[in-house]
């Protein structure tokens, strides 16, 4: 018994709930004999993985759904032994190279070579190529990405790569140009509502459309989150009422608290407290860029336009620095200190104007 | 290392040269004799014995060797003395001529006082406690005698008093003219000072002895007070009782001066006590008025009218000045500076040491009165200037001339013929060593004849010879002067480092460890009570308790900067307490096994060191060891692996005291150890404390270093006694030592390179006061003390800094600092990413210098250890847990790792926990279904909870009944669903909740089975594809060994 989000995942390209045009195009693509490298990107919870699994099923039949997990071992040039968990069927192998941190280059080179160099013996009724799925490509190190681009060309005859990323802005252009990029946009709120309704129908529940809409809004157009929230709502209170509370993820609440701390008081002491909160967020694995955007959204809510610009531009600057640097907390803190300074100045000026 | 001058020891030397002058006064010199005289009259004996007894207490550990050596020395000296004596008696009539001649070869004198000193020591050494008691008895008897009649001692005193009162003024007059020649002589032949000062010193001792004597016998004291009050009466009595023999009379004259000082004090105290309240009030008013005047008084009238003449740098060497009143044409500061530059010193209060009172307009009446009372010369400004000129001229001439000639007038003046006669007669009567100046001269003569020292060349050879002899003497000196210190005669002192040479030989000599709260006291106390404390079960003291005697602890940890005397303290304290020291320091390998085997064995054995010393009695075997682990902070690296842990284990089980020493008790390595140790922290001694010891060392080594340069040196060495001594010894080898300017420059350049810890460094980074005298390079150097930690420390602590700026600017400064720190992180990433270590200076700027500049002020609180490290490791742990869960749930979920953190964790947790909460045991099945469908392990549930729990939230598992939890675990193990992965690498998370015992047991079983699991998992059969069949068929899938064992049980 899984959660709804996994239980009711569509398994066939044609059964997808939204982006149906895209689905049919994918189907056409698969039905041709050849098939390019794919770079699938889109926000979290949009259905990238779901589409890829459907695609594989379309390619190889149900055999692609017989998954197994294997641990593969690699040795880095510095003689460090690393191991990585892979999910594979007979036809494909899926790996998350960022699991091994900075050694991802070794994984990509070895793994792709391994897979690509073994030819399918029995090619009758089968495709001539295997598929390698690489997750979180945008988080790959530059080294790994560069290692990837040559292998992509070299082994194109025996293997196809499907790269999954949240955003292609951090994928080097060389890779982008070698792939067919498929954008999977986040579902609209209406699409989410309809999915929620259909899921509830399958579960035999009656979901008020007001609640569905509220959940869709709260989910940030993330279908996964919307389904999980919906289920949580059901656990909390069933039968549904239109005005029932939609449980929000804890970390969102936490970011909001942090932002309000910044707005209530601007002092070094408060900065120290904010720092602890930021640490807590980072510890809990909240990606720092989400912290940045969360803070910014809350901060700009109640200030005038000139200040909004200022704060947003600083947020962008520090977020950029954070990507270049090692320690996100430094940059988050610098941003908080900056916005405190700006806000304080603004408050003092407006107070001065009042008198 | 730490060397202090004990006041009690006869080795004491005088740092203040101005006192030397008193030597040449006839009476003082006579007095010196008396201290060493083996007296015939009972009073003398008493005095001497008192002295001895006192010294006994001080140097309790003087060993037998010492005595033997001294005996030998004594023999030698006695021979000398006899010869001298003969000569003296022969030359009684020719004395004046003789002395003049003799005075020329002052260089020989050096050995004389040493001999005397040694003799003194032997006396003290020889006398046993019995003798002391005898002397006490005698004292009592005398006191009884005093009851009826005046004891001889009293008579003496009386005589002294009368003499004094009559002679006081005369004496003052006599001494004054003497001064300058003496000075001249001293400057020209500085070597002479040593012997003189020694004799002076002994005189001091005598003085002190007398004091103690008096204090010991209250009756005596009271009597003396009486004498003070009734001078005249006593004088009369004295007149009657002057039947005492001649020698005694001489004695009286000697003691006279000794008494003087004390008497005066007594007079004063008496006077004060006599004052009525009214008088006091009047005085108060007076002083208030005076103070008003003082505040209102004008500055110098003719400022700059006169110039301070150029004098030689040491023309005022032996002068101590008191400045009072407003000078006519100089500021006080200028004069002070000038005096200091001429080698003199300026005192703040009128004491006996003061030689001149430089009075201007409106001098302080109190000072003047006291100065007059003490017979100090009062001069005005012009006289002072003249004095500078005269003295410097004389200096020059004397240096050119033969020192002999310089001495002539002095001698003639200083010695009245009667004095000499007295001395001589005394020498004849009592066969003793003589210390008085005239005696010294005779000694010199005799020595010149007896001993054929190469350096003793004829005086006519001139100054060049002098210098030579001086050099030789400095070489010779240590050997003679330190015989008391070093008992191993075989050791050649010449080759020793000063640090070893002047190592304290008893605890009293350790610099800065005298107080009742000193570490020496605490350590002694702790060691004495150690065995007793082991029997008494003491509670662990509060770590903040102030006056803890460490009774709870079995070990002590001495921490402090290098060169403050930690090791010295331990070795001396142990020695005095009679402990045998087993020492291990950084040069020994101290790893786990070695400590366990070697040291552990050592501590259970008994020491036979008593036998080695030739002691065959039962006490030779002592069980009193103490284990000294020196430099425990050096116990690191591969060789000493596990050493600290083993040491802690040793401390827990030890049956002997353990003393550990380290430099930084806050260091990471010491963290675990400090909890088991009595904390004794050594602070750096103050500059003054070190200075006094160094002065005496300098004196012994015959190097002259101005006081201010010395303090500069000490500060530069970071108040490190050892370092200071090393520096001094280097300077001593420098031939151009005489130039004070050069010394000053040298001292400036000497700057001890201390490695700052990150704590101190970060404090400096933000301290505005420190910034004032730091260049930008210095500031970036602060970063380089530890370039990996410094940015973290700065980042952690910049918020706490209170910048010295307008309040509304604080946030701007803060954000400026934060901005710079963030840029520093970029540089850091570049450095680490591409090994661009040449960027470090840039990082230093961004991460340390700029934030420091922006936040320049002071650190308000305590410097915190960077929290980033802890947070980072925790973040790493949660990442790992998240990754595990991600890996486990991979088959059934889509989504990346971050989606686990952001979305799944909370909902999965709720999905598993809620059924347990709502349905208790009935919900177990449901929970397990969820776990199974997501291929989660039981431990993953704990990880999930850890991931999804935010501060301020309650752990939902706490609400679950532990029975439910236990049965759930049991059921989970029974089900043992097939996992699509090898669970071996997962078992990192410990069960954190308070599960029932069986949970743990089962988990342990799981652990044992792990290897098998892996094998099975590598089997290609073990796919997800055939999972379902397998589950039904046999439960041989990874997790079911525990269950199979259970099945076996069932079968049974």
Please characterize this protein's 3D structure.
The complex is a heterodimer of chains A (355) and B (1052). With 355 residues, chain A is of the alpha/beta class. Chain A has helices spanning 4-7, 20-31, 48-60, 104-117, 142-154, 173-178, 189-203, 209-218, 223-236, 250-264, 268-283, 288-299, 305-324, 328-354; strands at 38-41, 68-75, 81-88, 92-95, 130-134, 159-165, 180-183. Chain A folds into 3 domains: 4-183, 3-Layer(aba) Sandwich (Rossmann fold), CATH 3.40.50; 189-236; 250-354, Up-down Bundle (Zinc Finger, Delta Prime, domain 3), CATH 1.20.272. A 7-stranded mixed sheet of chain A has the order 2-3-4-5-6-1-7, with helices on both faces. In chain A, strand 5 (130-134), helix 5 (142-154) and strand 6 (159-165) form a beta-alpha-beta unit. In chain A, helix 7 (189-203) crosses helix 9 (223-236). The longest helix of chain A is centred in the last third of the chain and has 27 residues, at 328-354. Chain B is mainly alpha-helical and 1052 residues long. The radius of gyration of chain B is 41 Å and the shape is elongated. Chain B is 61% helix and 4% strand. The relative contact order of chain B is 0.07. The N terminus and C terminus of chain B are likely disordered. Chain B: Belongs to the activator 1 large subunit family. Chain B: Keywords: ATP-binding, DNA replication, DNA-binding, Nucleotide-binding, Nucleus, Phosphoprotein. Chain B: Large subunit of the RFC complex, an heteropentameric complex consisting of RFC1 and four small subunits RFC2, RFC3, RFC4 and RFC5; the RFC complex interacts with PCNA and the interaction involves RFC1. Chain B: Residues 311-388 form the BRCT domain.
């Amino acid at each position: 018994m899984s959660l709804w989000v996994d239980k009711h995942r569509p398994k066939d390209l044609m059964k997808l709930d939204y982006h149906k045009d895209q689905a049919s195009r994918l189907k056409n693509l698969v039905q041709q004999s050849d098939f390019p490298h794919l770079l699938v990107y889109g926000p979290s919870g949009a259905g990238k993985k779901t589409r890829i699994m459907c695609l594989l099923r379309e390619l190889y039949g149900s055999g692609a759904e017989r998954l197994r997990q294997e641990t593969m071992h690699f040795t880095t040039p510095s003689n460090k032994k690393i191991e990585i968990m892979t999910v594979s069927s007979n036809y494909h192998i899926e790996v998350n190279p960022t699991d091994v941190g900075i050694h991802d280059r070794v994984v990509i080179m070895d793994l792709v070579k391994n897979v690509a160099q073994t030819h399918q013996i029995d090619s009758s009724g089968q495709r001539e190529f295997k598929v390698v799925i690489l997750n979180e490509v945008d988080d790959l190190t530059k080294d790994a990405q560069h290692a990837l681009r040559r292998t992509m060309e070299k082994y194109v005859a025996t293997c196809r790569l499907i790269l999954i990323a949240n955003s292609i802005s951090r994928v080097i252009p060389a890779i982008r140009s070698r792939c067919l990029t498929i954008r999977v946009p986040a579902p609209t709120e209406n699409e989410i509502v309809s999915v929620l309704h259909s899921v509830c129908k399958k579960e035999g529940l009656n979901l008020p459309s007001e609640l569905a809409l509220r959940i869709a809004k709260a989910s940030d157009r993330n279908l996964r989150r919307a389904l999980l929230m919906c289920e949580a709502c059901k656990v909390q209170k069933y039968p549904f009422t239109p005005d029932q509370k939609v449980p929000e993820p804890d970390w969102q609440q936490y970011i909001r608290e942090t932002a309000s701390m910044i707005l209530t008081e601007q002092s070094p002491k408060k900065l120290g407290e904010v720092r602890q909160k930021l640490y807590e967020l980072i510890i809990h694995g909240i990606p720092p860029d989400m912290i940045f955007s969360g803070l910014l959204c809350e901060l700009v809510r109640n200030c005038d336009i000139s200040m909004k610009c200022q704060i947003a531009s600083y947020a962008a600057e520090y977020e950029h620095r954070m990507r270049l640097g090692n320690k996100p907390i430094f940059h988050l803190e610098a941003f908080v200190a900056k916005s405190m300074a700006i806000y304080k100045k603004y408050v003092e000026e407006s107070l001065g104007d009042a008198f | 290392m730490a060397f202090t001058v004990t006041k009690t020891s006869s080795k004491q030397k005088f740092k203040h040269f101005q006192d030397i002058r008193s030597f040449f006064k006839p009476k003082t010199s006579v007095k010196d004799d008396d201290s060493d005289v083996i007296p015939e009259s009972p009073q003398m004996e008493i005095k001497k014995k008192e002295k001895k007894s006192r010294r006994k207490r001080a140097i309790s550990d003087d060993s037998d060797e010492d005595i033997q050596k001294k005996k030998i020395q004594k023999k030698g000296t006695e021979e000398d003395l006899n010869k001298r004596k003969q000569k003296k008696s022969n030359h009684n009539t020719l004395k004046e001529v003789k002395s003049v001649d003799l005075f020329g070869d002052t260089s020989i004198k050096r050995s004389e006082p040493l001999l005397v000193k040694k003799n003194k020591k032997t006396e003290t050494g020889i006398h046993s406690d019995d003798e002391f008691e005898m002397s006490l008895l005698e004292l009592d008897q005398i006191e009884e005698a005093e009851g009826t009649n005046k004891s001889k001692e009293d008579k003496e005193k009386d005589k002294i008093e009368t003499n004094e009162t009559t002679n006081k003024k005369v004496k003052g007059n006599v001494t004054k003219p003497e001064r300058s020649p003496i000075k001249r002589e001293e400057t020209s032949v500085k070597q002479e000072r040593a012997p003189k000062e020694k004799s002076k010193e002994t005189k001091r001792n005598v003085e002190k002895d007398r004091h103690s004597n008096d204090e010991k016998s209250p009756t005596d004291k009271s009597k003396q007070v009486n004498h003070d009050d009734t001078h005249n009466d006593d004088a009369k009595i004295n007149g009657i009782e002057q039947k005492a023999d001649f020698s005694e009379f001489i004695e009286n004259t000697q003691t006279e001066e000794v008494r003087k000082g004390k008497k005066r004090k007594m007079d004063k105290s008496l006077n004060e006590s006599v004052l009525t309240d009214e008088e006091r009030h009047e005085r108060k008013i007076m002083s208030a008025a005076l103070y008003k005047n003082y505040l209102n008084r004008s500055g110098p009238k003719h400022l700059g009218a006169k110039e301070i003449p150029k004098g030689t740098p040491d023309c005022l060497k032996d002068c101590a000045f008191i400045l009072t009143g407003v000078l006519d044409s100089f500021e006080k500061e200028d004069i002070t500076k000038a005096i200091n530059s001429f080698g003199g010193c300026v005192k703040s209060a009128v004491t006996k040491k003061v030689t001149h009172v430089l009075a201007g307009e409106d001098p302080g009446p109190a000072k003047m009165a006291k100065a007059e009372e003490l017979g100090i010369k009062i001069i005005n400004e012009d006289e002072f200037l003249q004095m500078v000129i005269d003295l410097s001229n004389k200096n020059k001439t004397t240096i050119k001339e033969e020192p002999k000639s310089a001495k002539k007038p002095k001698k003639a003046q200083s010695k009245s013929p009667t004095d000499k006669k007295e001395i001589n007669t005394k020498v004849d009567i009592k066969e003793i060593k003589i210390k008085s100046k005239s005696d010294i001269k005779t000694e010199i003569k005799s020595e010149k004849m007896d001993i054929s020292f190469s350096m003793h060349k004829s005086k006519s050879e001139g100054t060049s010879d002098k210098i030579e002899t001086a050099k030789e003497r400095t070489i010779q000196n240590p050997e003679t002067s330190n015989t008391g210190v070093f008992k191993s005669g075989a050791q050649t002192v010449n080759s020793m480092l000063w640090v070893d040479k002047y190592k304290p030989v008893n605890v009293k000599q350790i610099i800065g460890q005298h107080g009742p709260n000193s570490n020496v006291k605490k350590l002694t106390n702790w060691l004495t009570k150690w065995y007793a404390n082991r029997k008494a079960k003491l509670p662990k003291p509060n770590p903040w308790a102030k006056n803890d005697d460490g009774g709870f602890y079995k070990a002590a940890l001495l921490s402090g900067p290098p060169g403050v005397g930690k090791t010295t303290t331990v070795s001396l304290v142990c020695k005095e307490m009679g402990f045998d020291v087993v020492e291990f320091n950084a040069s020994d390998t101290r790893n786990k096994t070695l400590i366990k085997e070697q040291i552990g064995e050592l501590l259970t054995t008994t020491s036979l060191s008593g036998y080695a010393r030739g002691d065959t009695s039962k006490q030779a075997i002592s069980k009193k060891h103490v284990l000294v682990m020196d430099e425990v902070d050096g116990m690191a690296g591969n060789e000493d692996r596990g050493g600290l842990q083993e040491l802690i284990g040793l401390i827990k089980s030890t049956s002997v005291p353990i003393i550990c020493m380290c430099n930084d008790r806050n260091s990471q390595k010491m963290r675990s150890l400090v909890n088991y140790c009595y904390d004794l922290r050594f602070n750096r001694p103050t500059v003054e404390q070190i200075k006094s010891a160094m002065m005496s060392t300098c004196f012994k080594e015959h190097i002259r270093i101005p006081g201010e340069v010395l303090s500069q040196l000490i500060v530069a060495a970071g108040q490190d006694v050892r370092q200071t001594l090393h520096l001094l010894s280097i300077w001593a080898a420098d031939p151009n030592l005489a130039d004070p300017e050069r010394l000053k420059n040298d001292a400036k350049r000497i700057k001890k390179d201390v490695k700052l810890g990150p704590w101190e460094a970060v404090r400096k980074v933000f301290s505005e006061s420190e910034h004032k005298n730091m260049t930008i390079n210095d500031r970036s150097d602060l970063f380089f003390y530890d370039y990996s930690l410094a940015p973290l420390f700065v980042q952690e602590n910049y918020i706490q800094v209170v910048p010295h700026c307008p309040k509304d600017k604080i946030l701007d400064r803060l954000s400026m600092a934060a901005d710079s720190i963030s840029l520093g992180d970029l540089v850091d990433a570049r450095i680490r990413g591409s090994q661009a270590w040449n960027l470090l200076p840039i990082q230093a700027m961004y991460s340390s210098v700029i934030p420091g500049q922006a936040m320049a002020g002071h650190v308000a609180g305590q410097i915190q250890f960077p929290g980033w490290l802890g947070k980072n490791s925790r973040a790493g742990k949660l990442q790992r847990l998240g990754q595990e869960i991600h890996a486990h749930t991979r088959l059934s979920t889509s989504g990346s790792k971050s989606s686990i953190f952001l979305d799944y964790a909370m909902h999965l947790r709720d999905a598993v926990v809620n059924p347990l909460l709502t349905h208790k045991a009935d919900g177990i099945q449901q929970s397990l279904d969820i776990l199974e469908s997501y291929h989660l392990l039981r431990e993953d549930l704990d990880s999930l909870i850890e991931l999804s729990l935010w501060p301020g939230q309650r752990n939902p598992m706490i609400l679950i009944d532990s029975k439910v939890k236990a049965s759930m675990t049991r059921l989970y193990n029974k089900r043992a669903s097939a996992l699509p992965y090898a669970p071996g690498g997962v078992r990192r998370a410990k069960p954190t909740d308070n599960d029932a015992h069986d949970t743990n047991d089962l988990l342990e079983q799981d652990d044992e089975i792990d290897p098998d699991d892996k094998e099975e998992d590598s089997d290609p059969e073990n796919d997800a594809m055939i999972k379902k069949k397998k589950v039904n068929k046999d439960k041989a899938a990874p997790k079911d060994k525990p269950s199979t064992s259970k099945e076996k049980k069932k079968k049974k």
